[in-house]
Amino acid sequence: MTTFQVASPLIAIAQKTRQAATKLAISSTDTKNQAIEAIAQALELAKDEILQANLADCQAAAEVIPQPLYKRLQLDEHKLRDAIAGVRDVGKLADPVGKIQIHRELDTGLILKRITCALGVLGIIFEARPEAAIQIVSLAIKSGNGVILKCGKEAVRSCEAIVKAIKQGLSQTAVNPDAVQLLTTREETRELLNLDKYVDLIIPRGSNSFVRFVQENTRIPVLGHADGICHFYIDKMADMDKAVDITVDAKAQYPAVCNAIETLLVHQSTAAKFLPKVAQALQECHVELRGDTRTLAILPNIVAATAIDWETEYSDYILSIKIVDSLEDAIAHINDYGSRHTDAIVTEDATAVETFFGTVNSANVFHNCSTRFADGFRYGFGAEVGISTQQMPPRGPVGLEGLVTYKYQMTGNGHIVASYTGANAKAFTHQDFV
Amino acid sequence: MTTFQVASPLIAIAQKTRQAATKLAISSTDTKNQAIEAIAQALELAKDEILQANLADCQAAAEVIPQPLYKRLQLDEHKLRDAIAGVRDVGKLADPVGKIQIHRELDTGLILKRITCALGVLGIIFEARPEAAIQIVSLAIKSGNGVILKCGKEAVRSCEAIVKAIKQGLSQTAVNPDAVQLLTTREETRELLNLDKYVDLIIPRGSNSFVRFVQENTRIPVLGHADGICHFYIDKMADMDKAVDITVDAKAQYPAVCNAIETLLVHQSTAAKFLPKVAQALQECHVELRGDTRTLAILPNIVAATAIDWETEYSDYILSIKIVDSLEDAIAHINDYGSRHTDAIVTEDATAVETFFGTVNSANVFHNCSTRFADGFRYGFGAEVGISTQQMPPRGPVGLEGLVTYKYQMTGNGHIVASYTGANAKAFTHQDFV
């Protein structure tokens, strides 16, 4: 027994993670890629153990959790193989660390560089989907960061088996297995959010209310978004056929995701022609429509929308519809009720596009295409760590660049500031190297 | 009398500011530059009124505030002329808005751009220095942002005269004077920090404790730093002459600023030779030295440092000194006690530099030059809106780029996601335009 107060076990874990992360941060691309390949091989070796652990999780959860959650929890051989292939894909991505963003001579022999570097330690909180742990760890290693994972309680056995294999894999490499940690209890989530001295970024993956809880209960920066209330505005100059096709895609192709639309705004001069067409197409896809008073005058058989509809992310086959008098009214509605995620205009009028792009305050503003394109993979980022709806960068779909920061590195040869001040002040040259 | 509850007057002000800012955000560079020139001219015209208001502020404050604060409050003709010249300098800076960061074809006719845009509304809280209002407004206009200023109570008359002139100037231009607002009471500061729906970035300028108060009492992103506890590490391979000169510059050239050093870490093998030399040079500049036990063995006449010294920003002619056994110990001390601002190594050993640059977790890491170079103007940014010690970008000295964010803009021609999924999925081309 020690006579000193024992520190929180989570602080000890965080310190170990940071220590391992400090070394990982300056590891070469080769070292990190070798670690990623070792993880892939260790997961292949542990395949049976992982699948058995998942079976136990599923059996325990079967009676307790709803069907969609159960499906996410399930990890079959096929899903696991895909996840391991995903690990190797991350190995092939460009190293986000060590990129020189500024390289400037301030004066002869005084050279400034701004260079990307790892953030430090990531705290990633996810719910039932166990293969998320695999993807997250590979992204963390590639970006030179330590990672503290917190999984949902339903997935504990699966995640323990996965992280055991990952640590086993890392133990064969130059990357310290302490760089990856797994937490499993709800109390630890709360404690993790308080570790602003040890954790540099929190990425919550889960329900809107869970993400909002995280945002409101930590001083650590949070990458993500609570809501995805996306809008489509059908302008008076819209091409009707494009408008119908894109609306159906943006709502019904996959309604459960954050970049699907929840509200359709229609210019009053196109409403009579457009609404019956789009209603038929959407109803064929089993989409329930809810309209404001003017919409009901054209589509009398749909449900009446109430104030709450304009601020609801249905994540389901439901769409609210409102008729607006002008482009400006549509933009005002979007900026009032939207979540700064993704909003689109359908029009053939270039001036309207310019106004929409300039004044809709969202991370993604689209013209004549589906909001569903708002995605890191579709943007060509190779990986997506999340979609951020904050105002400051990183904003929108965030790839590996969201897991790095930068440092200013300056080298001189005895340079002092006194030489550049006062009566005989030297001037800076400020020449960029190209 | 209205029968409705009147909303907080600050919300009404914030809404007016946002409305004006939305238009300012999409103004051309010419429009913004004309507004900046109009501000400069209006300030010249209102010169007498501003100087008289400042005289009244100074008379009211003379008995109440300490001498250094009084000096900051004073605005003479010379200071005002410099501030107006500064406005015109901002006019000459490159427009930070509208820069294309990504320009990519996702598929034929489906074009993605990532483009910089204004943040929205800035909340800037500053203390006694009235000319700060002039600089801030010109930076806000140049970056297309609205700005709500809150000045210290000592400077209210001066700032009211300045903002009156600025609004008068703007009223002659295409920029709505509502884009610039001034708050003057302490209650309003608290209320401003709660306006996370209306204000996109807070920049506090003031004492460490004030900045910390702001950071801890708002959900709005804060740009700045509370502490500037900068270190100098004198390695075993240090050149003695450079080490002495740079140490004196970093401590004594201007000790009140955040990039001056507070602690000197000296490798044990150089201490006996280096410490007497540097002590003499520093004492000639009236710097008080405080040393750990081993330092006192070499410099017996200086004060003993206590634990609190390692975490104190003196902002004064005081320097703490500690002898360390290795580069690793120096780095550990810096990462423990530093404020992630600016830390430097003096050495002729390239490997030590690499380790120091890689593992010191600070925004600015320097080699063989003074920490005092950590500054937006010296880095060649033209203007500095603050120095950030957060881990995520923007980090370190922040120029106009800290006042902008970006948006993804995508244009298609009826493109839908369904075409890129399933059995006959089209592939993305992901070609960058050059």
Set out the fold topology:
Two copies of one chain form a homodimer.
Chain A: H1 9-25, H2 29-45, H3 47-61, H4 67-73, H5 77-92, E1 100-107, E2 110-118, E3 121-125, H6 131-142, E4 146-150, H7 156-170, E5 180-183, H8 186-193, E6 201-204, H9 208-216, E7 230-234, H10 240-252, E8 261-267, H11 268-284, E9 288-291, H12 293-298, E10 303-304, E11 318-324, H13 327-337, E12 342-346, H14 350-359, E13 364-369, E14 386-388, E15 396-398, E16 404-415, E17 431-432
Parallel strand pairs in A: 3-4, 3-6, 4-5, 7-8, 7-12, 8-11, 9-10, 9-11, 12-13
Antiparallel strand pairs in A: 1-2, 1-17, 2-16, 14-15
Helix pairs in contact in A: 2-5, 2-7, 3-7, 5-6, 6-7, 10-11
Describe the structure.
The structure is a homodimer of 434-residue chains. Chain A is an alpha/beta fold and 434 residues long. Chain A has two domains: 9-216, Aldehyde Dehydrogenase, Chain A, domain 1 (3-Layer(aba) Sandwich), CATH 3.40.605; 230-373, Aldehyde Dehydrogenase, Chain A, domain 2 (3-Layer(aba) Sandwich), CATH 3.40.309. Helices cover 40% and strands 21% of the residues of chain A. Chain A has 14 helices and 17 strands. The first copy, chain A, has helices spanning 9-25, 29-45, 47-61, 67-73, 77-92, 131-142, 156-170, 186-193, 208-216, 240-252, 268-284, 293-298, 327-337, 350-359, and strands at residues 100-107, 110-118, 121-125, 146-150, 180-183, 201-204, 230-234, 261-267, 288-291, 303-304, 318-324, 342-346, 364-369, 386-388, 396-398, 404-415, 431-432. A seven-stranded parallel beta sheet of chain A has the order 10-9-11-8-7-12-13, with helices on both faces. In chain A, strands 16-2-1-17 form a four-stranded antiparallel beta sheet, with no helix packed on it. In chain A, strands 5-4-3-6 form a four-stranded parallel beta sheet, with helices on both faces. In chain A, helix 7 (156-170) links the parallel strand 4 and strand 5. In chain A, helix 5 runs parallel beside helix 6 (131-142). Mean pLDDT of chain A is 94; it is low at 1-6. The interface between A and B is large, with 72 and 72 residues. Strand 16 (404-415) of chain A pairs parallel with strand 13 of chain B, so a sheet runs across the interface.
